[in-house]
Specification:
The longest helix has 30 residues. The radius of gyration is 23 Å and the shape is globular. It has 499 residues and is an alpha/beta fold. Among the domains are: 297 residues, Alpha/Beta hydrolase fold, catalytic domain (Rossmann fold, 3-Layer(aba) Sandwich), CATH 3.40.50.1820; 45 residues. 51% of the residues lie in helices and 10% in strands. The structure holds 2-acetamido-2-deoxy-beta-D-glucopyranose (3 copies). The site of one 2-acetamido-2-deoxy-beta-D-glucopyranose (NAG) has 3 residues, from helix 5. The site of one 2-acetamido-2-deoxy-beta-D-glucopyranose has 7 residues, from loops.
Amino acid sequence: MANIISFLIWQATVYSYGLFNFFLYLGLVVRSGTFFSKPTEQEQNEFLLARDKYWNLSRTVFDLHHRFLVLRNGLKLHYLTNIATLDPSAPQSKHLVIFLHGFPDNCLSWRYVTDSPSLRQNTTLVAVDLPGYGGSDSLPRYGATEVMEPLTEFIVAMREKYLRVDDNDSGQEESQVNKVLIVGHDWGCLLGYRLAAEAPSLADRFILTNCPHPQLALSNKDRILTASKKMMMTFLHAPLANYHCFPKVFDEMKPLAYQVLLFGYIAAFQLPKVMVKYLGCGGNYAFIREALKSKHGKDKTAFNPPHSLAMTMGPGQAECRTTTDHGKPEQYGESVFGRAKDSDEWFVSATAYYRDGAAFDKWEKSIHTVAALHNIAVDNEACMKNRHSRKRRQSSASSTLFSDICASSLKAPATIIWGQRDQACTQPICLNGIGDYLARDSQVLLLPNTGHWTPIEKASRESLKRILEKFVQNGDLQKEDLQEAVRMTYPNAIVSIDK
Ligand SMILES: *[C@@H]1O[C@H](CO)[C@@H](O)[C@H](O)[C@H]1NC(C)=O
Ligand SMILES: *[C@@H]1O[C@H](CO)[C@@H](O)[C@H](O)[C@H]1NC(C)=O
Ligand SMILES: *[C@@H]1O[C@H](CO)[C@@H](O)[C@H](O)[C@H]1NC(C)=O
């Protein structure tokens, strides 16, 4: 009974706070004039042309090819890659880099990183649309299992497709040097944290940027609440003697209160779907346009409303009639067509990740997933035995012991890149203490001048590119590689943790 009551109180609090933010955001965009600004005819035409440019399947976009993968259950995922056609006779001697985007983005958000000539030549680049985003099919529900299962199946399939091991012995030696890197931003980063903790064999390293590790954020919250409560109790016990404790309660609570304020949009996304839709798309996408405007940091000239919107909203009905240019002609999945017909539906599926428990719920792995992960782990091990088990492997094996202690700690090496001016995620709640969750050979890189959009903002995207190039060059990343990579692009970046 007590549980039910506290659940109801929690729900009511979230709803009221969501409502408050709903009106706050609408008020803000009305006040700024964004809400009532109608697109000109020229802007509308530009939008249609831009949509064709980014989502017409018969063309390349940013020199990348549109491709699809159909999963066992029929779900069709869209991705971009630099590999036009796989030549089965060519030796596969490339590292594989898989990019996972965030909210409200899609595969196109990596365009400033994938243009590196050395990455294009020497790696297989795969930028996927998460289910419900861009050109990928929607899911009926976006809980942890519903999201992690197709994502894992996709990554396993990409490994099989682009990272084939030859039977030829000398060829094997060559192809086993190839590494898999998973790069995630925002929701892609959060899902990356989960993969690194719960399916670490999928990649040799994770590069994760600007999203809280869910368990870490919770434990930071709990720590602050416990400390504040203690101080409050001390004060109440003897108010006159302990009067100095009273202001300290507020000091302690400040970072948490600030984070709750910034995460107000998450509460607004818990409202009924019609309201969420109105929030995102009312007033000619006023809310989204304001969000997109912040993407380039200080460089406001880089914001082009029709283009930004066309990228974010995914394919329209015209693009859903186009087909891919190679092999068997393919089209976007059926639910993508459904989203295109109701031009605001994409916002509902994009925000569903916040509603359906993708961050915190238990991921119930299917037997397929368990088997696939096991096979990869066995292959990795065999490969390492052949190569006289190098130091790095040993260290990640020893970190498996730690897994029994803390299920949400990472078991694969990770490089965390943190834009310290993040407009949504604050460092005291979302990053501090991350060292306890990292495996050996992990680092944290702080970028003092960058906000939330590390793959988009100029200085941070150049650094990210250099860091990926370093990974490709050396087959891994050490602290020195990071420092070398940011020396020219981001002189005041700091490696704050090196494990
Ligand atoms: C690709 O890798 C090879 C071998 O490491 C290197 O010589 C070449 O310069 C790289 N290509 C680019 C464009 O950097
Ligand atoms: C294995 O690969 C090497 C070099 O890549 C080649 O010379 C050799 O003929 C290959 N052997 C077989 C059995 O395919
Ligand atoms: C897509 O691109 C092709 C090739 O450039 C063009 O012929 C076609 O008209 C475009 N499709 C649509 C629906 O715009």
